[in-house]
Design brief:
Layout lengths: L10 H13 L8 E2 L1 H8 L3 H13 L3 E4 L3 E4 L4 H25 L2 H15 L7 H20 L5 H26 L2 H19 L3 H13 L1 H11 L4
Antiparallel strand pairs: 1-3, 2-3
Helix pairs in contact: 1-3, 4-7, 4-9, 4-10, 5-6, 5-8, 7-10, 8-9
Length: 229
């Protein structure tokens, strides 16, 4: 929704709103981002918008065209495969380290996040349902790897997650609104949880890599349906 112009949005607010719309597919890959349209949609001035767009270029969500403005960054099967392969390998490493280094508080945090995710009730608003499930889902995965004790690896994980967000959103839409898909994810999470608590680092690492790769076929299908690749 457009912002209230009386709020005098900052560059950070401009960044957050524009990023959300790009991630959620309001703007298609390679679509031109005209300043006049952005100003009208968000009620944001040119200065904050330019700052937001510059930040999004750094996150590979926007491309800048010399003297010709800005476009949404393209999406591709090759990029999807590369991002998800890197995420799966890194997450497998992080869960192994977390099992080796995590303490009782780490285990308790995982259990708490898993319980919270399992308690989501369906709501009337689709966006609210998607946002709630994804927030709790991310919190569970964050808790699983939090015991690794390696900040540089966690920073790399966060950067890869940012690169994956547009692709992930296509999968989220397919998953969150499907009872069967949610049930499948619940079983995957429970199997992962049992293996982690059993401190079987090798098996948990393998399962985590497989778990991270399950969205890829769905995302490819959705990209092709929309004509984005």
């Amino acid at each position: 929704m457009p912002l209230d112009a009386s709020q005098s949005p900052t560059a950070l607010e401009a960044y957050r709103h524009l990023k959300r719309d790009i991630v959620r597919g309001h703007y298609a890959p390679t679509e031109k981002l005209a300043m006049s349209q952005l100003k009208g949609r968000y009620g944001i001035g040119v200065g904050p918008l330019r700052e937001a767009l510059t930040r999004l270029i750094g996150e590979r969500l926007v491309t800048g065209i010399s003297q010709r403005g800005y476009r949404v960054a393209p999406m591709s099967i090759a990029e999807l495969d590369a991002i998800y392969d890197a995420r799966a390998e890194l997450e497998g490493l992080l869960i192994r380290l977390a099992i080796e280094r995590g303490d009782d508080e780490w285990e308790a945090a995982i259990l708490a996040r898993a319980h919270t995710l399992s308690k989501i009730d369906r709501v009337q608003d689709a966006d609210e349902m998607l946002e709630c499930w994804d927030t709790r889902h991310q919190a569970l995965h964050d808790a699983m790897v939090a015991g690794c004790g390696c900040s540089p690896l966690m920073q790399s994980r966060a950067a890869l997650f940012d690169q994956a967000q547009r692709y992930r959103h296509l999968w989220l839409h397919q998953t969150v609104f499907s009872e069967q898909a949610l049930a499948d994810k619940q079983r995957e999470h429970q199997a992962l949880l049992d293996t982690i608590l059993a401190r079987d680092a090798r098996a948990a690492s393998r399962m985590m890599r497989e778990h991270l790769m399950t969205p890829v076929p769905i995302i490819k299908e959705k990209l092709q349906e929309r004509g984005w690749v």
